[in-house]
Write a structure and sequence with these properties.
alpha/beta, globular, DsrEFH-like, Hypothetical Protein Ychn, Chain: A, five-stranded parallel beta sheet, 5 strands
């Protein structure tokens, strides 16, 4: 079986749709099968990594805590678009996991190295 390099690009805020949850589930599944994978966060998506997300008001299960398990699945490549962080008025200290912050140009260049790009 050929190991394609997978990039999962998150673009949505945490609870606007189920796309973030679906992307996380796919990432963990691919990692279980030892597929090379990286996660990219842009647009509103860095909010999925924010500390202290309270989903009680929305009456939804908080799937975002699942991102804390990335290390257990050996998913170490996590990238965030710096412009998105700035627009959301967030910095790395506001995030629940470690991630590499890239300029838009670096973000796009890094993404171009992957065989399969899936957007959520």
């Amino acid at each position: 079986m050929h190991n394609h390099k997978h990039a999962i690009v998150f673009t949505q805020s945490p609870f606007a749709t189920d796309k973030g949850k679906e992307g996380l589930e796919l990432a963990l599944t691919l990692a279980t099968y030892e597929q090379p994978i990286a996660l990219f966060f842009t647009g509103q998506a860095p909010l999925q990594l924010a500390k202290n997300i309270n989903s009680d008001l929305l009456q939804r299960k908080n799937y975002t805590q699942g991102f804390n398990a990335l290390d257990l699945y050996d998913i170490e490549q996590v990238y965030i678009n710096a412009q998105s962080l700035d627009e959301l008025q967030l910095n790395q200290r506001d995030l629940s996991i470690a991630a590499q912050v890239l300029s838009t140009e670096e973000f796009v260049a890094k993404l171009s190295h992957f065989d399969v790009v899936l957007q959520f």
